[in-house]
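Sample entry was shown:
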Amino acid sequence: MPDNIDTIAARHGFSPAAARVVADALRHGGGRMAQFNHPELGGMGQWSQGGMIMIGDMANNDLKARVDALCKDLAGATGPVPAAAEQQPGQTSHQGSHQGSHQGSHQGSHQGNHWWPQDLGSPSSSGAQNDMRYACFPDKRRLAVMQGGTVCVYDTGEHRITGFSQQQGGSQALRFTSQDGTVRLEDLKPV
């Protein structure tokens, strides 16, 4: 019998409420990725299988490791990810859809599960904040970004994306972390 949320939460030193936020986010992310917001988890954060973890408390590596272990444990639970009893206030989970080719920018609807061009396949990680969404496709060396309903796909070249950050305020500058350090979105070539 698979562990319940309370048992998994206790194993990693989190409250059941914090674990429910992650479990619900994992359900929305198909068990492969999660976006969450809970004080015990370092505030706003995201996780995806393959090693990407970001939390609001960026300098707290011990907490980051515990959140990563919690996410892995919940994602690896036998059967479906345990359902959360109710959605927690402030939780973020964004998904949309876009259909079309990946050349240049596109206007599209947000129906279904994918807002990026179909030929990119499934992203290794994705996220959203405010009106900006992003998804990474390392096998194809592509990064898809949607802002204001327009999708643009970028060539990531030799960069292996391991994390995203988004500046708040007037400009929503998107930056990502690669093996070469921080790279700005405007440094990438649109395709």
Summary: The chain has two domains: 5-75, 105-190.
